[in-house]
Design goal:
The protein has about 600 residues and is an alpha+beta fold. The chain contains 19 helices and 24 strands. It is elongated and about 95 Å long. The relative contact order is 0.08. Bound molecules: adenosine-5'-diphosphate and magnesium ion. Adenosine-5'-diphosphate (ADP) binds near residues 98 and 99.
């Protein structure tokens, strides 16, 4: 007789094996699940051991609450969890696990051994399972806490085993997972042993700052700024790297929501916006974000691996993160009251100096020098027709009135370093400086862009842009598309000091420009700006971003043509740069200065 049903209920061990694939796809996810269980069990010490990239062995031991015999047996059943009782509890979930799947899944695809003991019990329990089959349960002497050993992962699932990568790759995943967990729980002592060698031993009772230093080293730590911010229902804490430190991928962006490692497109977006105009577009900052909000406001259930989360009120979280990052980098927050004098300047070369001190030094500096922004004055801009003439003028000027580059020390007696001496220029371009603790190379063009950019933004936000009327108004004819874009934004341009009006058709008249960009070609700017406006507008961001985009475009236009600088101009540029909010990069994200410390030089010359 022919069987007439095709549908079959799978035996439990087969179902478990299939389900295992969702929770456990590689040794690193075994380690992650086990470590999270240890945290949930209130451990203060968690020790991890792996061998052969975790394929041969992953062990996690903790000193947490442990389990009694019955619980130990239940813990390896599928959908057995002590952490929720009802579906409503998911809304208020405070523990890392709650699905009750991990242990059952792991035990079904490996040789599994669990040893656990509660503090109050005389003896512990050992459970061994091989490929989902219970082998043995017995009483065993054991310290309080839980130890789980997972050997030969996927020994019974060849298809899965095939997908494991090289030893190094798997180990890399384990290590970065370990770091993520260690950052999420700085108070818990943690160690990682790889093939018998201890690679991390992190002290218990640390705060997050200590832990970051312990993991990444003091040099890295020095380039971080601490970050704090809040919205009505969200708080953000953590660290952000200076824009001078960036990576080719997001590997050093650690985000945690309510203590749980989290990823979300929204967070990526917020980080990008926070660093907007500070980094080259293909580079990524180093970020440690700890976000706290009402557990009911996040949905952690999106993905079985529980990393991707959804926010119930996305815009609040996004804005809080952006504002916190920009504040931490001493940038204006993205509001209309930007760029007030409260924000603390960061000085090049000495990111670690306390704010009060640097502010004082700048105050001294301003008193002792009359300060003027370097502008593209007649002596600096190349004259298209009579270039040689002017060039000679400059030459004469610099030999007659100046001692020459390299001869005078202490350009800046009070800032940004306690002293700084301009040594010269490389190829008439890059500026070479000696400071008290090393060598600085400065890109004068990027630096000048930064200075102009901040000046223009400051004028705009204070509402008094210095406007330069053009003697002869320029008429500019645009392509229909550019003209449309421009028309939509004439009002914004006006607040920026651009006097532009319609002349009929797609032609516009320009009769005024912001004073600090007056050397740039009006025509070039009106062709470039509409595009910038569209880009800024399409990001759907606030007016601040739009103005910033214009400022950026304008100042780039203004400094496009540069020439050899005199010592005096260089000095002024250094002073001006030291006064900016973000002296390390141009508005486009290119570096302005490259600092090489004395230590680094010594190292390079083998003098350590
Ligand atoms: P979940 O963590 O989602 O509840 P798991 O399969 O990871 O599911 O764990 C099942 C149960 O086993 C947990 O709810 C917990 O009660 C218990 N358990 C697992 N690991 C430990 C541990 N290290 N210490 C104490 N109890 C543990
Ligand atoms: Mg768990």
């Amino acid at each position: 007789m022919v069987e007439d049903t095709h549908i079959r209920v799978l035996p439990t061990h087969v179902a478990n094996k299939i389900a295992a694939g969702e929770v456990v796809d590689r040794p690193a996810s075994v380690a992650k699940e086990l470590i999270e269980n240890s945290f949930d069990a209130e451990a203060t010490q968690v020790d991890v051991e792996v061998s052969a990239g975790g394929r041969k062995l992953v062990t996690v031991s903790d000193n947490g609450v442990g389990m009694g015999r019955d619980d130990a047996l239940l813990s390896v059943e599928r959908q057995a969890t002590s952490k929720i009782r009802d579906v409503d509890d998911i809304e208020h979930i405070a523990t890392l696990g709650f699905r009750g799947e991990a242990l059952a899944a792991i035990a079904s695809v490996a040789r599994f051994r669990l040893v656990t003991c509660r503090r109050e019990d005389d003896a512990g329990t050992e459970v061994t399972i091989t490929g989902g089959k219970l082998q043995d349960v017995r009483e065993i002497g054991a310290p309080a806490g839980t130890r789980i050993e997972v050997r030969d992962l996927f020994f019974n699932v060849p298809a899965r085993r095939k997908f494991l990568r090289t030893y190094q790759t798997e180990l890399g995943h384990i290590r970065s997972g370990f770091i993520t967990q260690a950052l999420a729980h700085p108070g818990v002592g943690m160690s990682l042993k790889v093939d018998g060698r201890e690679t991390y031993r992190l002290a218990a009772g640390s705060d997050i700052s200590d832990r970051v230093r312990e993991i990444f080293g003091p040099d890295y730590h020095r380039d971080l700024r601490s970050l704090e911010g809040a919205g009505p229902e969200v708080t953000v804490r953590g660290f952000v790297g200076l824009p001078t430190v960036h990576r080719g991928d997001r590997g050093e962006q650690y985000c945690f929501v309510n203590g749980r490692a989290a990823s979300a497109p929204l967070l990526n977006y917020a980080i990008r916006e926070g660093y907007r105009s500070l980094l080259p577009s293909d580079r990524h900052p180093c970020v440690f974000l700890f976000i706290t909000l009402d557990p009911a406001m996040v949905d952690v259930n999106v993905h079985p691996a529980k990393k991707e989360i959804r926010f119930r009120r996305p815009s609040e979280t996004r804005d809080a993160v952006i504002a916190a990052i920009r504040k931490a980098l001493a940038l204006p927050p993205c509001s209309d009251t930007a760029l007030d004098d409260q924000s603390s300047p960061i000085l090049p070369g000495d990111p670690g100096r306390p704010v009060a001190e640097t502010q004082m030094k700048i105050a001294d500096l301003i008193q002792t020098r009359t300060f003027r922004y370097p502008r593209m004055g007649p002596g600096m801009s190349p004259a298209p027709a009579s270039g040689s003439d002017k060039g000679q003028g400059r030459e004469a000027e610099s030999t007659a009135s100046e001692p020459g580059l390299g001869s005078s020390r202490t350009v800046l007696e009070t800032a940004p370093w306690s002293w700084c001496r301009v040594l010269g220029q490389v190829k008439d371009f890059y500026v070479v400086m000696e400071t008290e603790d090393g060598l600085v190379l400065m890109d004068p063009r990027s630096s000048h862009e930064r200075v102009l950019f901040e000046q223009l933004m400051a004028e705009v936000t204070q509402g008094d842009v210095e406007v330069q009327n053009l003697l002869i108004p320029e008429t500019v004819e645009l392509k229909p598309r550019d003209a449309d874009r421009l028309r939509k934004n004439l009002a914004v341009l006006k607040t920026m000091g651009f006097g532009v009006s319609e002349f009929g058709g797609d032609t516009f008249v320009v009769d005024a420009l912001p004073a600090c960009v007056k050397e740039a070609s009006a025509k070039e700017m009106l062709i470039g700006l509409p595009q910038t406006l569209e880009e800024a507008g399409s990001r759907g961001a606030k007016g601040q971003w739009r103005e910033e985009a214009i400022a950026q475009a304008a100042c780039q236009e203004a400094v496009r043509a540069r020439d050899k600088l005199t010592l005096e101009e260089i000095e002024e540029l250094i002073v001006a740069l030291s006064k900016t909010e973000m002296p390390y990069t141009s508005p486009k994200g290119r570096p302005t200065i490259v600092f090489t410390s004395m230590n680094e030089l010594n190292r390079k010359f083998g003098r350590e």
